Amino acid sequence: MHELFKKRRSVRDFQEKEITDFQIKQILTAAMVAPSGRHACPWEFILVKDPKTKDKLSKLRRYGRFIKDAPIAIVIVGKEKESNLWVQDCSLAAGHIYLEATNQGLGTCWVNIKDSKTDDGKDAEQAVKEILGIPDDLRVLCIMPIGHPRGEVQPHTEEEYRDEIVHREKW
Question: Which residues are CB-neighbours of 104 under 8 A, at least 6 positions away?
Answer without folding.
Answer: 23, 26, 27
